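Convert to structure. Protein one:
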Amino acid sequence: MKAWVCENPVGVEALQFKELPPPPLGPGQIRVQIRAASLNFPDLLIVQNKYQMKPPLPFVPGTEFSGVVTEVGEGVKGFAVDQRVAAFGGLGGFATEVCIPAVLAMPLPDAFSFEDAAAFICTYATSHHALIDRGSLQAGETVLILGAAGGVGTAAIQIAKATGARVIAAVGSEAKAQACKALGADATINYATQNLRDELKALTEGKGPDVVYDPVGGDLAEAAFRSIAWRGRYLVIGFAQGQIPALPLNLALLKGASLVGVFWGEFAKREPGRNAKMLGELAAWYAAGKIKPVLDRVLPLEQLPAAFARMAAREVVGKLVLTNV
């Protein structure tokens, strides 16, 4: 098999594309021939040694992928050779094959393309868990989505619209604003040229958004929290800007607002039944055409460094996908 290997987590430039022996198949695992893998922001952080999980060296990065089952381990039920699957496996996705616990895999209908499937689980599960489960978003409410043109942001726009909410998409360029409008956003704010608080006040007639979806963190967080509506819910998804904000907690008191942590990965481990039900609902929404991953680029696996460079430059709209042919 071929894989991108991280032997020294000092950055993308240290990754090596090399031949490796096939990984051993353990009990409860399936072997997957990978057809497509997508980039998520933690994939960049982990090869820079900046992520909360620090795997033993060497390791193969790549959290999310799709492919075909080629071997089934002892004790595995519900999967068979030649079955199409997608998975959020944590590691191993930037390779031609991988062995993962079967419980991490999601069976794929034939109509689900490998490229879409590789860009589906993490972003849509995160956004559904955030908006519906943790944020209790209701039809008619207004949600502000920060970093709305990214992977989780584009998924959040689609899920919020499917719920019947009004969407304000906040982005860093006019091109990204237009992309969000094409996905169904009702209004956009370009925070590179516009004042976030002033625009939110105008767009909500002074009320503010009922829900703030924040995968960005950094210096936008306080302005967004100061603008939130009475009884608003501020969803902490992640910190793509790199800075963890310090929010004055008196704002929560003054607005009767909730600061809500969202950790889909832990939710999936602790509440597997609810997670499986949610993934089933999302797959049904995909089949019905309510949601569809936005693919920024589809590149060969060999071009992983170029894909990472595009992600680091914050040029991506939706998800970057790598394919094995």
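Protein two, convert as well:
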Amino acid sequence: MTKIAYLKCPTGIAGDMCLSALVDAGVPWDYLTNSLASLGISDEYELLLEQVYRNSQLATKVLVNLHHEETSHHHHASARHLPEITQIIRGADIPVRAKDWSLQVFQQLAIAEGAVHGVSPDKVHFHEVGATDAIIDIVGTCLGLDWLGIAELYCSALPTGGGTVKAAHGRLSVPVPAVLELWKLRQVPVYSNGIEKELVTPTGAAIATTLAQGFGSPPQMTIEKVGLGAGSQDLTIPNILQLWIGNTTAQSSLKQETITVLETQIDDLNPQAVAYTLERLLQAGALDVFTQGITMKKSRSGILLTVICLPNLTDTCKEIIFRETTTLGIRERIQPRSILNRQIHTVKTQYGAVRVKVANWDESTDFPAINIQPEYEDCAKLAREHDIPWRTIQQAAISQIGNRFD
């Protein structure tokens, strides 16, 4: 089994929230503080630990209190460039994996900031994200993941937030440009939870987009521990980052893909037009199309049209539905779908060749199979040619499968 973790981010993600969740999940405080001290910047900050409530839920909060003495050293530390940060991390006495992860996170952040400001990553003037607290948050997070033995990290879709935030370059719209660039680099799924605040910080986005292997629904796992990291703001829902820690389940080899489900109700369309619409949708590449009889408002009879397609065909399928039906609106949702590995074999019957779909857990397994089905069209073609029942062809194909593979 593989030790994995999942970041559940209903109110976003920030560096301090990641660090707090890891401490809450069991990373020893002494180990964390001693390891961070080896960075050689201990005179710039004080690390505090407390338990706080967010909407009546108890969570851990790690605070990085900066020393604000007006010294030239602190002024320099608050706006580092990537080469200096790299030197600090490389010189620290921390595990190799934590060191490598920390360097990767800052490199990812520098690439995003550089793209926003039109400069090379090494020339990025980090301002807030190069400040002491960002170094502590990022390196501390990597130390915690390493100490817990996390082999794979996954993350939920992220909320966009809204409004504006004050930054080194003035007041910026939320999400700030660096966060948008990081989302674009990793094609992160995002959504609005209706909270008009800065919910994802550049530091949090850099950690997630660098270290997470995927975004979306939780992976198949057995949860053994949950760490709760509190955010700084009080929001309408608990401002808590959840860190789920556990192991992969026995059937984690199942393939998963992301699909779009489109639905609409129709009560004023000729059934022939419905049939034509289904045909056009399948021709366009929809994975499945079906209708259900329903009773709509005012007790009118209607149908529920459902289309399942891959995300890249969503707009095409919606255009067909709007063009061919009388609907004025289409509901849309993104869902994960677990699928068996499928292979096509051909068997020879006394009536002719029939293709057979063989489904199994993964590509490495051939037989015994989980599901075996002769192709309908092949059976129908032979049934018409020989003028015999379709079931006769299907049964002949199934019997040949047993003869060939038993």
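The first helix runs from residue 15 to 24. The chain is about 35% helix and 30% strand.
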